[in-house]
Design a protein that fits this description.
With about 210 residues, the protein is an alpha+beta fold. It is about 20% helix and about 30% strand. The protein has helices at about 15-30, 45-55, 80, 115-120, 190-200, and strands at about 5-10, 35-40, 60, 85, 100-110, 125-130, 150-155, 170-180, 180, 185, 210. The mean pLDDT is about 90.
Amino acid sequence: MSTDIAYPVFRTPDPALALSTARRLMEFGRREHSEVSVYAALPSVAEVRRVGKEVPEGWFRGQEKYREFDGVPLEAQPVLVVGVPGLGLPTEPTAYEGRLPVEYEQLDLPVGSIEDAFTATIGSNRGEINWKMLCWPDVPELGFPGESTHAEVTLLFNTPTRELDESADDHTVLVHVRSAAFDGGQMNEPYAHWLAEQVELAVIGPGQPS
């Protein structure tokens, strides 16, 4: 199965600058039907409630233990486990016990509909904005055909990894290309360098599977 690999091309402690830079790269490949999704991991009840007020259209889902609700009908499970919009978040603190971090997401939205509000809301939480259904152009002189299936841009907040498993004091812009490994090396890495150069950026670190 074909996958993609994401290369960091910009890093800054300024979230607004990170967003404007990511948008510049995204616009290079944007098409009419391009989409954007956002995701955050919220580690405290206070942050869940704050984000729920600031971007209430999102979907919030708490953690559950392995096989905790095997055989339990969906309607009998806690609303926070099933998932709930911001305006439906539980008010009682006990509803969050064992459910943190709470995941927040909005998926497959029109480009430009959520990015500013999400960036203003993210604070110190780990999260990402991901633009997909882009299209990278042909580069015949480098031997690269155009790419759409794996053409994406991701902006990571307060973490350097798409798994959101590490903390950072800055934000990272990633450009995605199709993964094509040969003899332990990535054949498409020069394509990532070329794409970054088109918007006056540069690859600044190794790629990560996405």
